[in-house]
Amino acid sequence: MKNQEQQRLMEDEQLFGEARAMAESIEAIRRARGKKNPRDVDFGTPEWKDTCMAFARDLRWALGIGDDDLTEVPRSGDN
User: Fold this and answer.
1) d(Cα 69, Cα 45) in Å, to the nearest integer?
2) Are 67 and 55 spatial neighbours (Cβ–Cβ below 8 Å)?
3) Residue 3: CA count within 13 A, CB half-sphere
4) CA 52, CA 46: separation in Å to the nearest integer?
5) pLDDT in tens, 46-77
6) The whole model's pTM is what?
7) Do 20 and 14 contact (CB within 8 A), yes or no?
């Protein structure tokens, strides 16, 4: 049981590392193209939301997923 838990933690760490590397790559590509990243704008502002959506589109592109179904999903408390 302990070996299974250690294996799962190692796989989670590897997956996190891969996700982080992809996000950093996308940030670098966006910066090279003169685009802003979510961390470059004030949190919660309309510009931040637009930047997050553009970042998500770039992430979907990097994963080979089209952006035709990419829409903002309202969260509770959002009007």
Assistant:
1) 23
2) no
3) 0
4) 10
5) 999 999 999 999 998 888 886 565 555 555 55
6) 0.71
7) no
